[in-house]
Design brief:
heterodimer, A: alpha/beta, 3-stranded antiparallel beta sheet, 13 helices, about 40% helix, B: about 375 residues, alpha/beta, Rossmann fold, SH3 type barrels, Elongation Factor Tu (Ef-tu), domain 3
Chain lengths: ~375, ~375
Amino acid sequence: MAYLDHAATTPMLPQALDAYVRTAQSLGNASSLHGSGRTARRTVEEARERIAEALAAKPGEVIFTGSGTEADNLAVKGIHWSRRADGRNRVVSTAIEHHAVADAVAWLGDHEKADVTELPVDAIGRIDMDAVTALLAERAAEITVITCMWANNEVGTLQPVAEIAALAQAHGIPVHTDAIQAVGHVPVDFAASGAAALTLSGHKLGGPTGTGALLLRRDVTAVPLLHGGGQEREIRSGTLDVPGIAALAEAVVHAVRTRETESERLALLRDDLVARIRGAVPDAVYNGDPEHRLPGNAHLSFPGCEGDALLMLLDAAGVECATGSACSAGIAQPSHVLLAMGADPDDARSSLRFTLGWPTTKADVDALVAAIPEAVRRAKTAGLS
Amino acid sequence: MRVLAAMSGGVDSAVAAARAVEAGHDVTGVHLALSKNPQTYRTGARGCCTIEDSRDARRAADVIGIPFYVWDMAERFHEDVVEDFYSEYAAGRTPNPCLRCNEKIKFAAVLDRAMALGFDAVATGHYARKGEDGLLRRAVDPGKDQSYVLAVLTPAQLAHSMFPLGDTPKDQVRVEAETRGLAVARKPDSHDICFIADGDTAGFLKNRLGSATGDIVDRATGEVLGSHDGSHQFTVGQRHGLGLKRPAADGRPRYVLSITPVDNRVEVGPREALRVDRIRTGAPVWLAEERTGTFEAEIQLRAHGEVYPATVTAEDGGLTARLHRPAFGVAAGQALVVYDPDAAQGDAVLASGTIDASASSETESLEAAGV
């Protein structure tokens, strides 16, 4: 079986799994005052320091959460709530955010009467900086928070987060970035980015599912989503998941430490994958930014084919990939990212995402390249029904 | 064979898929999403295609051990089934959407796509048999037989269809589902029309077709007995829901005899006036070898309806049936299905056609009844 869906989830790294198992065997609530509690707390604080160091943040800026989605919601809603005031009620987002951000923003618009602005992207999925400049010139005083992902989860395009943060800083507007697809895959320096908040998720970089973190600058406040013990800076409540946090730190540290060689290896494999698919299927279209993109991401459209049909045929041939973000009812909708990039709905439905991860080898690419011509031939016959 | 099992989330299609696996086929489960905005939960026996149904289908596929996908057929379903439903009612006819769905979606769009993607057949949980001779025959369980709603298939479509439940009574299918550990074993059967979630067909039609006040007229006397707010809310043969204040002079119930959308007129009268013994259809679909001229057969006029012996004539791009025993309340738009009776192997479907007109030889000619 060739698994080429690492952006959906990637297996835990051996060292993260070891850390998880080891820590899960020891007793202790990190908030308890006795010896077991202190041991657990020490594990958490060491993890916090290691993550901070790996991403150029301060330990006090790391807030552990139960998922990337939670961290995104905490940043977008929490910062908006803490900063909204008379005449300041606008959330700025982009047209290509993951649902964890996009739906949180839409909810603020629908239920909290927030004004919402969505920044457009160009044909390769990159934020339109002119739109950012124009918006700030016109409405800076109205804006509570700007949220812009570091790297797009579907087409892999890297975003000019630091440029946006620099422009926003002049107006004192905090910028949040969903860096879930970026951490461990491209250089991420929280301090240098100028972002006020950054989301990461465990299971996209070799850590456990159900772990995430929000890096939140000390001078920025966020109103909590969850109320309770106030364990994390009074901003996030809930008993700390000590083994999850230990494993998350192990994964972040390893992914960041090996990032340079690993991303080079993945980019070579990815480029080989794309070249060979285009050789086998000449009308396939490579989407996204050809250069400034995630090293393990290949996103292609296959004109005349339905992505769903291709996925099924490849699945039957032992190759696993994605059509875009999965939908609860399993009904494929044309990707909002591709539509924002100007694709027509048929093209948007004809695409597949192949994402490579730490276990990916040339054999996986070979399996895909062997299976794709027949899958495309059949899917074309079936057409865009 | 590579078989695509259409799985609705109900017990029948789940057992059908399991049986296809057991028969040695390479089976893939597919749930058809027919609504763009599916309801999250189903209420009792009503409707289908909710997200919960999709989950039930997925869980059944897990237990059976087959791959599972959801196919989005919502657009096609809307165009070919829901829009047809509206336009038929608007024309004063009574459509059968399940039959239309089999004709246009399950054994057309889905089957075509399946064949293109490399499957050899589509298996469903319909109760019907396919004989050794390739004919479509009634199921063993007469109460569940669904050959009527499958009679619109062409021979080519039928050749690529499988109905693994045709030889089994429904209660045994439930027992089998239980034995196989399928959680849907006790799920209620779905009734009514799947795309009308609340079961209010009149309200569904009114939403789209609007309401306009028209007369309810006694056919015999021409007397206006009452009013209605849209002729599309009625079906020939309907007795309830007429809202007439005064009883008929003879105290007997009154029925809808005809619906004329052009002047929004609904005619009513006694049950005898619904009596017909001649029925004409549009162009037939022959599932067995095409016949010409006149022959004896049995006909059925609605799903799970009565069976009538009749003399059938095939001519002029249509079928005419002369019933040996009268039928009551035959609605245009329903299918007339012609069967060759066979007690041993199950009655075989010969042909089907959509009913255009019906008449009683005692009172009027078929020509006068108009098409």
